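Can anyone check this?
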Amino acid sequence: MKDAFFVLTPLGLPQANELAAALAVLQIVVVARESLSPWARAATSLYARREAADAQVRAAAFEARWRELCPEDRAERWWLRSPEDYARLIAHKASLRTRFPGVALGVAHAGWPPFRLHAFHVPDAGDMVAEAARLDGYCLVAGRR
């Protein structure tokens, strides 16, 4: 994995400084940040690619909730220094999610399990390149900083 990243969603943006500090304590180094907009449409492209028969419908429900909760519709992609930083992020993802929780949305459609929007999204290692391309295709990406 050459270029590892994760996405700080609109729900996580207000806590960006706190998350950056938590990552530093874990020795997870962020080397660049990019603004991603529109996030809701990009998030849909990440969810809709799943194989489940109802993936498109679920993705549309997620998109509607993102738009409803976060009208600014902006996220950030945080690039990591190395695959080792990504591995540390994966190892600490669950504990970070308790400190930086998302929003539980309940059931969006009969027969679906409850779902939630997260403060940050971490691609699976095998999906990193494809998700980066989807984000680039759906978002106006403001330069790395």
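Reply from J.R.: I decoded it. The helical segments are 16-25, 39-48, 55-69, 83-99, 128-138.
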